[in-house]
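Entry 12.
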Amino acid sequence: MIRSTLAETHYILAESQVRAAPMPSSFHTPSNRFRATRAGWWARLELPTWILIATIYGGWLGCVLHWQALGPWLGTPLLILLTAWYMSLQHELIHGHPTRNARFNALLGQLPLAVWYPYAVYRDSHLDHHHNETLTLPGIDPETYYVSRAGAGNGSRLRRFRNTSAGRLLIGPALGWSRTIRAAWLARDRKTALTWGGHGLLLAAMLTVLEHAGISPLFYVLAIAYPALSLTMVRSLFEHRAVESEHGRSVINEAAWPWRLLFLNLNYHLVHHLHPGLPWFHLRLAYLAERESYLESSDGFVERGYLPLLWRYRSKPAIADVHPFA
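Predicted 3D structure (tokens):
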């Protein structure tokens, strides 16, 4: 009940949290700040998100039902893209879209197409992540890739490799999933058991359907779900950095449209963290309306696409292993 209420009002709470830090005056001008949200009935009804939901579910189901006709060479990359896109959709659902009803939104993101974790686990962790004042801090921000000096211990070489683009793609999903499983094991409470138990039942049912369609469950997990999570982790490679300025911790990545569509405009991550209630189809419009102000407030944390980022950090870490002031 508490989590559902939090999810339903998260867009209001998160908006109020960011007012503690100074921003350029234009961000506080309603005519500028919410210019992108004053669209027609299609935006008020969140029609783009409903179309997105139908496209992702319809595309995924279509690939499964026509797997034999598509063959693995075409079906596999299509399912990888659709599964990664589904994870972006789950993020949108968490932030109160396409409805204000968190329980209904959760139903839309409940199916384990991405395999690795229950929707509720992602939701709870991600809502805890959305506190700009503690962003990147180890032990507080559940999505940080930093460790504290006290907690550095062994494994620094592995963590440094994980923070390269090669490591993020190859071992990032495995390390992230193992951390999630460890947290569930340490919790050992009824809620966690029910959450993972329900996820397991849905996953078993989905894998059974896939097997009947001619897709091996092991193939789906290793050749589709794992690469899909790797693809999603491209976004997080250099999404946050540890600096004193709260608004300098989240990136603005002026990526090309295929990446923007795949990540539902979360490349404008500073905009998302400042206005987490904005739907995905308004993020780019909001950014372009106040581009210079956002660039100024980002303290230079601006990237020009994901391919240059992947190449630059192919063998060196995008971020330091140890948090500089935690």
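Annotation: DSSP finds 18 helices and two strands in the chain. The chain has a mean pLDDT of 90.
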